[in-house]
Design brief:
alpha/beta, globular, 2 domains, NADP binding, Dihydrodipicolinate Reductase, domain 2
Length: 518
Amino acid sequence: MTYNTNVESISPDGAVYYLFGATGDLARRKLFPALFSLYKEGKLSENFAVVGLARRPRTNEQFRSDLYDSINEFCRYKADDAELWSRFTEHFVYMSLDINNVDGFRELNALSTELDQKFDIPGNRLFYLALAPSLFGPVSFNLRDGGLLESKGWHRLVIEKPFGYDLPSAQKLNEQLNQVFKEEEIFRIDHYLGKEMVQNIQVIRFANAFFEPLWNNNHIANVQITLSETVGVEERGGYYDKSGALRDMGQNHMLQMLTMIAMEPPSRLHGEDIRDEKVKVLRSLRGYTSSDDVREHVIRGQYTEGQVGSKELPGYRQEDSVDPESVTETYFAAKVFVDNFRWAGVPFYIRTGKRMPVKTTEVVVEFKSMPNNVLFAQRHDLAPNLLVIRVNPMEGIYIKINAKKPGSDNAVQPVSMEFCQSCQIGINTPEAYERLIHDAARGDSTYFTRWDEVSHAWEFVDRIAQAWREDKGDLAFYPAGSWGPEEAGKLLEKDGFHWWPVNGQEEDNVIWITNSGK
């Protein structure tokens, strides 16, 4: 599918949307609000239907009541237009389904035929599996055996992460799906790729003439990618203790953002061309060759008891459903190299963790410093220029430069010029799930992960996990509410760099010039 100059206005073809796991947390917090926002903005045509599917019994009225509660609690729009709400909810029905019983799928197929006729839907099917990965294969087989893939329209499968636990499990899962669906029919969601500022990375890079000539190892000293969370594992302790930060965040979100920063310009704004360039980055990642190599370049940590303000925070091993002697990492930082002509020698520092001081997702591109023996650098300790892309929760970009301090005799101070997208749009910034559901319905796979992306990412991450299994003694600890273990700072210090302050923690000596009037 090629891009249209007015792509945002394109409504998808009419389809039946099947939400497996419709009584779960993801549907309530993200999927229902996304569908309502799309409908309110005219991005869903009237010829659609949504079938909520789960094991527990619910009537259509109960399902629509749950839908109403979900919208009013989590959606950026409220259900305050009675006429619009009535039109919207008539498209929603519920069916109790045992996903291991193919007869239930045959009943679902019969219901689908009725919905096609009622809403004039041309047999298009979008199956959204908000389920455990172990169920992806069995559900796919029953969709096929139950006749749901025999309609005359298109058929698409949307699945959530995690896609496997390691490369072998991901390969097995992919083989199961490929027995039923073609690769171009499988849409693997990484919701970070739906975020406004992640997608804006391409525009910043490829729509501005003064960035691309500098986007290489001649001018960039390092790149830092931070994804920090203030929360602990909360009720996910049982799941998280078997996963950890490396698999939960590193294999998908972190590496996906790295590919967006490091990719070459695609030949066309076409989904497959963009994904081709991302795969080239993953193929170029320098793999860690030994356990010693991993210990030198990767830090893993786990939070202990800490305090934020007057609030006492428990350590990870004190969380519910967590092994009291667990060595699962809640934090990891790594120095990564992309071995190609553009990035040879440039370190990419990535870090993610729970129980950090600030919730943020941010990319910092640090440019090389001016020569220290010429002009102003002879008399001043000039700060390096930075390009900072703020992804979450505040969205925007800023550039830090050096400028003359007003009223002084050539005194130099850092100045940051900021574009604050959140200040303009505020809470009405489209949610990632809105964009991704809309794209999947239109058949645009640009911001979904292709199988070769998934496999290369697992191949890279599995080497780290293997080294950690061989040596459990290198786990570092950090107090809850801190920025991670000291070893993470030393990872940069030995290269002459440091972690830059992130959103909400800016340096006091920086003068801000912003579009928001700050």
